[in-house]
Design a protein that fits this description.
The complex is a heterodimer.
Chain A lengths: L5 H45 L8 H51 L10 H50 L6 H39 L1
Helix pairs in contact in A: 1-2, 1-4, 2-3, 3-4
Chain B lengths: L1 E7 L3 E6 L13 E6 L2 E5 L7 H8 L8 E5 L5 H4 L2 H7 L4 E5 L3 H4 L8 E5 L4 E4 L4 E6 L9 E5 L4 E3 L19 H15 L3 H12 L5 E3 L6 E2 L1 H12 L4 H4 L3
Parallel strand pairs in B: 4-5, 5-6, 6-7, 11-12
Antiparallel strand pairs in B: 1-2, 2-3, 3-4, 8-9, 9-10, 10-11, 12-13
The chains are: A mainly alpha, B alpha/beta.
């Protein structure tokens, strides 16, 4: 084990938990925006249907917007589940580490105790649990990086769709203003979500750094 | 952690307490262990802060895997907040604790140890060579509360009943009952909420043959001082925080 004090390690674990909770907080705001986009997409569908032939070019776009908002909602749910799993693993890891430190202190202070060796199996179990938890944590952390990357790509697509929809709406005459508002909302939402994903990335990188320090 | 063997025959009773390394800000606690052949029972094993000194002290007298059973008289942190650590040290053990507190006690962390809920009317713990009685002590002070009676050793582990606010240097046994009263009086008046519960417990305990009464804080009563305590407790008005407001 590394030469770190128990206080330092517990502080590291607490920092990790705070960073993971911060990801969940960032994504809470994303979820609200994603629901807003989903609602806007449904409105846009109605608008394009009302536009009849003039809105035909816009219908595939509204389908895309709806799809993107659903991907964002599902993505946020997956990211939240993953962040929760990471928090649980971090708590288990911290508990195991706490037990490890206390068992170590008993073994070191009571070397002459008649039955001190009877603590060895418990020590081994805790060590194994710590190693397993660490592996699980790293795997879940990598999964979370991938999910954030995926979300980022969805938002890039959303911005591209928003640009295309502006061109399409320019031919939609009397519905132009309404549809431009939808395109604009989509673009703003994509920018907002991208920022939040970027902040989540920073929090997760902090977790990664702390995990490396802890290892 | 100071260890005192208070009974030594076919089975042994150990008292752990008066830990000089204990942080000053936490209340001093007495932990007890019965070793009966290849099995051992830990009673009110204590808080997180005393876990390491407790485990270290135990390993001078028993093997870790010899501790097959734990007992928690009630749910307080000074009684059982070390559970999450015992859970990792003794994953095969069973915890005997009030059924009413299970959902609360599990908050201390329990993934391996088996919870054996004690019914309201009490129960027993069989350690193979000895059977211990779990005596109801509800509302003294917790709403689900038990004491452990050893009919062979004639010892009653009495949880918070008989407790005293004691310095870590205090003696293990009560040597002058009257002189000891001021250390117990406020504790019982303030922590024990019900005269009815108190009298019910006294009636039941008077039927037991007790040589030692071993509380979770303070000093152990022996011989005549057990009866002295029961008489004193019987006349004491408890639940005074409410009375003082009336």
């Amino acid at each position: 084990m590394p030469e770190r004090t128990m206080t330092q390690n517990i502080a590291t674990d607490e920092d990790k938990l705070v960073a993971l909770a911060s990801i969940a907080a960032e994504l809470h705001a994303v979820m609200e925006v994603a629901y807003g986009v989903s609602l806007a997409a449904k409105n846009a569908k109605v608008i394009s249907a009302q536009a009849g032939d003039k809105g035909l070019g816009f219908q595939p776009i509204t389908d895309f917007i709806d799809e993107i908002s659903q991907l964002a909602i599902n993505g946020v749910n997956h990211i939240n589940e993953n962040a929760l799993t990471l928090s649980k693993i971090a708590v288990h890891e911290q508990r195991s580490y706490d037990a490890y430190q206390r068992f170590s202190s008993v073994i070191s202070k009571h070397k002459k105790a008649k039955y001190v060796a009877s603590l060895d199996p418990a020590m081994l179990r805790v060590e194994t649990h710590m190693i397993d938890s660490f592996k699980d944590f790293k795997k879940s952390m990598n999964d979370l990086f991938l999910l954030l990357e995926e979300m980022n790509e969805h938002m890039l697509s959303a911005r591209a769709i928003a640009s295309v929809s502006r061109i399409v709406t320019s031919d939609a005459q009397e519905f132009r203003n309404k549809l431009e508002v939808v395109a604009s909302n989509l673009d703003n939402a994509a920018v907002f979500i991208k920022d939040k994903v970027s902040d989540s990335y920073k929090h997760l990188n902090r977790v990664k750094t702390l995990t490396r320090e802890h290892a | 952690m100071k260890v005192t063997k208070i009974y030594d025959a076919n089975h042994q009773w150990f008292m752990f307490g008066r830990d000089p390394e204990k942080p000053e800000s936490i209340i001093d606690t007495n932990q007890y262990m019965i070793v009966a052949g290849e099995r051992a029972l830990l009673m009110d094993p204590g808080g997180i802060e005393v876990f390491a000194p407790m485990l270290g002290a135990i390993l001078h007298h028993a093997k870790a895997d010899q501790i097959t059973d734990l007992f928690a008289s009630h749910q307080d942190p000074d009684i059982i907040s070390s559970l999450g650590l015992w859970d990792q040290a003794l994953p095969q053990a069973r915890l005997h604790a009030p059924w009413i507190w299970e959902g609360f006690i599990r908050h201390f962390g329990m993934n391996n140890i088996e919870y054996v809920g004690i019914p309201d009317e009490g129960s027993t713990i069989n350690l193979g060579s000895i059977e211990l009685q779990l005596i109801p002590a509800h509302y003294l002070h917790a709403s689900g509360n038990y004491h452990v009676y050893d009919p062979v050793g004639k010892i009653l582990m009495s949880g918070d009943v008989g407790a005293a606010l004691e310095s870590p240097e205090g003696p293990i046994f009560v040597d002058d009952f009257n002189e000891h009263i001021p250390r117990m009086k406020m504790f019982h008046q303030r922590w024990m909420p019900s005269n009815r519960a108190k009298n019910d417990w006294i009636r039941r305990v008077r039927e037991l043959d007790i040589e030692y009464m071993a509380p979770q804080h303070g000093r152990i009563f022996k011989g005549d001082d057990v009866q002295n305590f029961l008489d004193w407790f019987e006349q004491l008005d408890v639940g005074t925080a409410i009375a003082s407001e009336e």
